[in-house]
Amino acid sequence: MAQQSIYLAGPDVFWPNATELGNAKKKLCQKYGFSGHFPLDTELDLSGLSPVDAGLTIYRANIALMDNSDLIIANMTPFRGPSMDVGTAFEMGYITAQKKPVWGYSLDGRLYNNRVEGSEVDSNGFTIESFAMADNLMMVGATDHQGGLLTKTLTENMENHLHVFEQVLKQINHNI
User: Fold this and answer.
1) Do the beta carbons of residue 134 and residue 112 sit within 8 Å?
2) Please, are residues 158 and 152 in contact by the beta-carbon 8 Å criterion?
3) Cα angle at 137 between 133 and 142, to 5 degrees?
4) Which site from 7, 45, 61, 166 is most exposed, i.e. has the minimal number of CB atoms within 10 Å?
5) Structural domain that includes position 42
6) pLDDT in tens, the chain (176 residues)
7) CB atoms within 10 A of CB 117
């Protein structure tokens, strides 16, 4: 059986130590017999490009990484709000559309509706979905359909992050 490759999605690329975190995740992937692909792995020359063209170049490079991956592990920890990173949500949807397994984890074990203001409606009167899930039902559904989701209530530091990530790798190994 050929070594499976994993696209490592999440807002990790925005962390101050993004490269270090990505390398540590890839090393853990190797430990469990996988090849990890972190979005910052692509060596792109963005010099001379407008911000829009630079963004589109990164988009195309990440699409290529996902196309060449067998599955995804997505860091679904809330980012810049009560829900997961929107780019990560797109990546999970893209992989789901390819019928590849979607695995996720969150360092925030609270339910989505407990992270959003109010209990049934927000301050604008909009209903807050309350399905006892870690995030939006479509995102949790993607992990439930072909992979799995692990949630832990931990502080967001690299050691905790890598511990939870390794637990996901162990679950994937167990299910192969």
Assistant:
1) yes
2) no
3) 105
4) 45
5) 5-175
6) 578 999 999 999 999 999 999 999 999 999 999 999 999 998 899 999 999 999 999 999 999 999 999 999 999 999 999 999 999 999 999 999 999 999 999 998 888 888 887 668 877 888 888 888 889 989 999 998 778 888 777 777 778 889 999 999 999 988 87
7) 10
**Alpha-carbon Rg of the chain, whole angstroms?**
16
Other beta carbons within 10 angstroms of residue 53's beta carbon come to 11
Q: Are 3 and 34 in contact (CB under 8 A)?
A: yes
As for how many domains the chain has, the answer is: 1
Nearest one of 156, 169, 20 to 85, comparing CA atoms: 156
d(CA 73, CA 7): 6
3-state secondary structure of 41: helix
Q: Helix or strand or coil: residue 11?
A: helix
pTM: 0.92
Beta strand residue intervals within the chain, DSSP E: 5-9, 35-37, 71-75, 102-106, 148-151
Pair of tokens at residue 98: 């390819």
d(CA 61, CA 40): 9
Dihedral of CA atoms 120, 124, 129, 135 in degrees, nearest 10, equals -120
CA distance linking residue 157 with residue 8, whole number of Å: 17
In the structure encoding, which two tokens stand for residue 108, read together? 């925030």
